[in-house]
Amino acid sequence: MKVTCAIIENNGKILCAQRSDKMDLPKKWEFPGGKVKNETLEECLRREIKEELGVEIQVLEQLPSNQHNYSKSKIIELIPFRCTLQTFEIVLLEHSKLEWLPIEKLKTLDWAKADIPVVNYYIKTYK
Ligand SMILES: Nc1nc2c([nH]c(=O)n2[C@@H]2O[C@H](COP(=O)(O)OP(=O)(O)OP(=O)(O)O)[C@@H](O)[C@H]2O)c(=O)[nH]1
């Protein structure tokens, strides 16, 4: 299963989202995004961000993807993109919490397993 996610940068901080109790991987932190349907990766990302946060984004670049096997039937390829905001009124539509964190604080969150290599790559590349 391909999943896109957005590393949204604004004023030197990165938007981190906590999954709600109703989602799978409850309370884990992630980058907002979701499963790719019949669409391009960028279309998927822009659609998911609109659905989850109510904002438009600009997609800057694709970063290396990471495959993680949560179980036999749940194997995901997480495909991250660096993004910025085009509109700024964020609404919390699906997640339980949002945090804007500076890059040096990203490691303090309890990330979904698939995100850990993505966070590490981002820190290594952009700090
Ligand atoms: N959006 C997102 N999903 C992630 C990340 N890391 C990670 O393991 N996942 C997993 O990838 C899958 C994405 O599905 P989702 O539930 O967020 O996406 P969706 O909105 O398309 O699904 P749905 O409409 O079926 O609920 C979930 O199983 C989620 O646990 C991440 O950083 N962002």
From TrEMBL:
Keywords on record: DNA damage, DNA repair, DNA replication, Hydrolase, Magnesium, Metal-binding, Mutator protein
GO terms (BP aspect): DNA repair; DNA replication
EC main group: hydrolase
Entry cofactors: Mg(2+)
Domain Nudix hydrolase: 1-127
Family annotation (InterPro entries): MutT-like, NUDIX_hydrolase-like_dom_sf, NUDIX_hydrolase_CS, NUDIX_hydrolase_dom
EC number: 3.6.1.55
DNA damage in keyword set: yes
Single Gene Ontology MF annotation: 8-oxo-dGDP phosphatase activity
UniProt catalytic activity: 8-oxo-GTP + H2O = 8-oxo-GMP + diphosphate + H(+); 8-oxo-dGTP + H2O = 8-oxo-dGMP + diphosphate + H(+)
Family matches, as Gene3D superfamilies: Nucleoside Triphosphate Pyrophosphohydrolase
Database matches in PROSITE patterns: NUDIX (PS51462), NUDIX_BOX (PS00893)
Cited Pfam families: NUDIX
The keyword Signal is assigned to this record: no
Family stated for the protein in its record: Belongs to the Nudix hydrolase family.
Stated name of the protein: 8-oxo-dGTP diphosphatase
Species: Salegentibacter flavus
